[in-house]
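The instructor's notes for this session suggest beginning with a concrete chain rather than abstract definitions. Hand out the sequence below and ask the class to guess, before any prediction is shown, which regions might be ordered.
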Amino acid sequence: MPDWKTLVRQRLAPLNLTAAAEAEFVEELAQHLEDRFRELQSGGATDDEAYAGAMSELEDIYALRADLMGNRQMPKHDAVPSGKLASGNFFEDAWQDVRYALRTMRKSPIFVLFAG
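After discussion, reveal the predicted structure:
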């Protein structure tokens, strides 16, 4: 039986993923390949045919490269928090919060009924 984890690690090496991300991805993909290999074998395929079928799914990993690289390059936090920053006037900010709460409650009155 093939060592799927080693094969997946070799394919993922050029992506330079973090150790945690690589370990999680290797585990999940190796399990998928093992399941596919056994499924093909139980369907009547020879070991070589089942191996080739599972490996053909591993070839699709290169389609994920752009997605993985894009996710890896995204910052974990926004540089600037979204939304308007506080004006520094307590009463103005409080009134703005009250108006927002009223708009939100108006959109979901059933929730307000049960929460209240």
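Then share the key points. Helices lie at 4-12, 19-42, 47-59, 61-73, 90-107, 109-115. Residues 76 and 105 are 32 Å apart (CA to CA).
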